[in-house]
């Protein structure tokens, strides 16, 4: 897959380029900006996943302990009832917390497509300005025809910099 990296001076030019280049169906677009854009996608569902993982695993551990104490291996110890729930809560809480942390860690990695150790965009000379003042748009196309169409649209937009991405 080949591509180009285009730099724009302001957010409005980047938004216009993104809107016009999104009409090229084969191209994949990715923006790099010095600050978050106003039209960012909605918030992540990761907190809900973390909550569900913690609650479901705590309930599963509590249920497993209850089954073990009451049905699988019932013991009468000092007149204690078979279902003594206060003794089951600490282990259920610890298991739920562990599952929530694991879901958060691995969910973060999956949501951000990590580890992503190298991107050809990193080799661009002008890309250092992405953290300061320029707005970059990486255009990746599967074939030369789609890339040529994207380049013709870019010529009309007059970007500050157009650089070919290494393969």
Explain what you see.
This protein is an alpha+beta fold. The chain has a domain at 2-39 and 136-165: Alpha-Beta Plaits, CATH 3.30.70. Helix content is 45%, strand content 14%. The chain has four helices and four strands, in the order E-H-E-H-H-E-H-E. It has helices at residues 11-21, 46-72, 89-111, 144-157, and strands at residues 2-8, 28-32, 135-141, 161-165. The chain has a four-stranded antiparallel sheet, covered by helices on one side. It is rod-shaped and about 85 Å long. The model has no long low-confidence stretch (mean pLDDT 90).
Q: Brief overview, please?
A:
The protein is of the alpha+beta class.
Describe this protein with a few key phrases.
Alpha-Beta Plaits, four-stranded antiparallel beta sheet, 167 residues, 4 strands, alpha+beta
């Amino acid at each position: 897959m080949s591509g180009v990296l285009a730099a724009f001076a302001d957010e409005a030019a980047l938004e216009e380029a993104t809107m016009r280049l999104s009409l090229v169906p084969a191209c994949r677009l990715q923006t790099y900006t010095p600050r978050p854009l106003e039209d960012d996608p909605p918030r992540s569902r990761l907190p809900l996943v973390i909550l569900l993982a913690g609650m479901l695993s705590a309930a599963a551990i509590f249920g497993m302990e209850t089954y073990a104490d009451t049905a699988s291996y019932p013991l009468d110890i000092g007149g204690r009832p078979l279902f003594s729930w206060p003794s089951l809560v600490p282990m259920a809480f610890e298991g739920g917390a562990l599952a929530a942390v694991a879901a958060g860690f691995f969910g973060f990695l999956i949501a951000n497509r990590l580890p992503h150790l190298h991107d050809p965009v990193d080799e661009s000379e002008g890309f250092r300005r992405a953290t300061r003042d320029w707005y970059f748009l990486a255009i990746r196309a599967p074939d030369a025809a789609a890339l040529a169409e994207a380049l013709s649209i870019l010529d009309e937009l007059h970007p500050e910099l157009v650089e070919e991405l290494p393969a």
